[in-house]
Amino acid sequence: MKRLRILVLVHPDLIPPNSTKGYSEQEINEWKTEYDVVKTLRGAGHEVRPLGVHDELKPIRAEVEGWKPDVVLTLLEQFSGEAIYDQNVASFLELMHVPYTGCNPRGLVLARGKDLCKTLAHYHRIPVPSFAVFPMHRKVRRPARLALPLIVKSLNEHGSYGISQASVVDTDAKLAERVDFIHERIGTAAIAEQYIKGRELYVGVLGNDRMRVLPVWELEFGNMAQGDWLIATEKAKHDPDYQERRGILHGPAKNLAPDLSARMQRMAKRIYRALELDGYARIDFRLSADGIPYFLEANPNPEIAESQEFAAAARHDGIKYLDLLQRILTLGMRRGGPSPSAD
Ligand SMILES: Nc1ncnc2c1ncn2[C@@H]1O[C@H](COP(=O)(O)OP(=O)(O)O)[C@@H](O)[C@H]1O
Ligand SMILES: [Mg+2]
Fold first, then answer.
1. Are 260 and 154 in a shared domain?
2. Residue 66, helix vs strand vs coil
3. DSSP states of 84-106 as a string?
C-alpha cells in the first residue's frame, strides 16, 4: 500500500505514548486501541498524526484543510462526552468530503438504538429478544408479554456502560429499581430485554458493498462466582484483573455445528445490510440452549486493539493486524457517493 497521511481522531485522554514502558497493565488497557493503531501504521511507513478531540470541530477542520490527510481514521466513541454524537462527527467529515474510516452516519444512527436495531432486524426475520422501552420520567410497568428474568440496559449507551450483575432482574421491584438507576445514573431511557441464557457469540463483518464475514467468535466466562449471570458486564469487558480472576477469554467458537455457524454469518451480513452499516462492525448474538441465535446488537466501529475480539477473529481468518488496518483505511477511501441507498 502506498504511504498515506492519516489523521487519527482520538479522545484527548487517550493520545497514546510512544512506548508502553513504565505503564501498568490497567493504564495500557485504557489506550491500547489507540496505541496499537498508531504504532502499527507508523511501523508500516505511514505518516500518522493523532488529534485529541473533545468538543471542538475547528481543530479537525484545520487539520483536514492544512495537513490534507489522505484519510481520517476515527477512534472516537463520543463527542463532548456523548456517545450518540459519534454520528455527527462522521457527518462533519462527510460534509468536508474527506475520506474517513468506519461507518457512515446513517448506519451509526440505525445501529445505536437498542430498540430500533432490533425492530429492523426482526422485520428481516432475525430472532431478537422481546423487549420494552422505559422512557425517562415515566412509571415502570412491565408488559404482561415480557417474562422475568429481564436484563435492563441503557437504550443507547455502549461498551457495557451501566451493565453489572444487578442488571439482570427477576422481580418487578428489582426491574423498577434498575430502570431508575439507568434513568438517574446513566441519564438515558432504559430498555428491558428478555434474558437469553446461553453462549455469547460475535460475528465481525468488514466491507462496504461487498462484505467479508469473520469466523464466529465466543466470549467465554470460565470461572464466574456461584450464582453470577454469564454476561459481559463493564468489569468483564474492561477490567484486566477481573478478566483474569474470572477466566474471561475470547476465541473461536468451539463445537458449533457448521450449518449453525454459516447461518450466523449469513445473519450477520443481513443485519449489516439492514442497518446500512459499512466499514467494519461486530454483530453480537446470544445462542440459547435450544440453538437459536438471538441478535443482541450491532457495533459499528468496534474496538480494534490487536488483542480484542475483532482483530483476533480477523487474524484467525488469515488477516494480519496491519492488513486489517489497511483494509479499514481502504474501505474508508473507497466509500461510494453521498448516500448508500442513492448508489
Ligand atoms: N437480552 C440479553 N440476554 C442475555 N444477555 C444479554 C442480553 N442483552 C445484553 N446481554 C449481556 O449484556 C452485554 C452488554 O449488552 P449490550 O446490549 O451488548 O450492550 P453494550 O452496547 O453496552 O455492549 C452483552 O454482551 C451480554 O453479555
Ligand atoms: Mg455489546
1. no
2. helix
3. GGHHHHHHHHHHTT--B-S--HH
Q: Pairing relation of β-strands 5-10 and 71-74?
A: parallel
- Residue pLDDT, tens place only, 200-248: 999 999 999 999 999 999 999 999 999 999 999 999 999 999 999 999 9
Task: Please indicate, yes or no, whether residues 123 and 24 belong to a single structural domain of this protein.
Answer: no
Cell of 154: 441503557
Q: Is 286 in the pocket of ligand 1 (CB under 6 A)?
A: yes
Nearest-CA neighbor of 152 among 184, 175, 185, 129? Answer: 175
214, with CB counted inside 10 A (0-12, 13-18, 19+), is buried
Enter the pTM of the model. 0.95
Bridge partners, residue 194, by sequence: 150
H/E run at residue 154: strand 150-154
Domain of 149 in residue numbering reads as 131-194
The closest ligand to the CA of 197 turns out to be 1
Cell numbers for 231, please give them. Answer: 454476561
Choose which residue among 286, 309, 310 to substitute to test ligand 1 binding: the one with the highest number of ligand atoms within 8 A of its C-beta.
286
Q: How many domains does the chain have?
A: 3
Residues 136, 93 share a domain: no
Q: Do 241 and 183 share a structural domain?
A: no
Note the pLDDT tens digit of each residue in 249-262: 999 999 999 999 99
Closest atom of ligand 1 to CA, residue 195: 3
Q: Which atom of ligand 1 is nearest to the CA of 236?
A: 27
d(CA 293, CA 309): 18
Contacting residues for 274 by C-beta, under 8 A, at least 6 apart: 120, 121, 123, 124
Question: Which three cell numbers, joined as nine digits, stand for 235?
Answer: 468489569
Answer yes or no: do 175 and 259 share one domain: no
CB 57 within 8 A of CB 72: no
- The residue among 201, 175, 164 whose CA lies nearest residue 287 is 201
Cell representation of residue 102? 468506519
266, 259 Cβ separation under 8 angstroms: no
